[in-house]
Amino acid sequence: MKKIGLIGGMSWESSVVYYQIINESIREHLGGFHSARCIMESVDFAEIEQLQHQNDWSALDGIMVNAARNLENAGAELILLCTNTMHLCSAAIIDGISVPFIHIAQSTGMKIQSQGIRKVLLLGTKFTMEKPFFKNILKTDFELEVLVPNEKDRETVHDIIYKELVHGKLNISSKTTYQHIINKAISSGAQGVILGCTEIPLLINASDVGIPVFDTTRIHAEQAVEFALRLS
Q: pTM (2 decimals)?
């Protein structure tokens, strides 16, 4: 298998989930005592969060490219960025490395398309819900109609991520709030919901809602494993 390079720490709670899913998937594919050949470069999320809310994406590009190059120099043969929001830096990363980069929105779009779903709700940070980097791939490459919550609900979804989930806090009231937002989208015709922040699946899973759930963390990690094995 090829060695998977992981850019993690955003947050470390979801990076743990990536590591677990990747190794479980390797064991499922190969059996026996097999585990993943992988390496992680983990950043300090305090610095990342501050730059995000200062809208300093140039500085963030530099940090992400440096992390990706460190992984490539350490022998990584493909790169995985273990966060949705920071895929805003994906173009800079791709330009800065010579190994394949697995884009989370591409992975998610393929999964949704394979199930014949055409209209989806996207939940994530305000950056992911409001900026085009994720939605445009789904619309342009996969011809999906992408819904996002209204402005007030986007603020609520974002605040729960940054004030609770990235700190490992899982509150029942927040789960109920997310379910209410998802149900409003179902009333507007949503056929599926994208959990477009790597922390949201810590709070919401398929049993919590009445439409198909697309967990970007799991989709992304499992596709990386398939890619690593296919290239071998």
A: 0.92
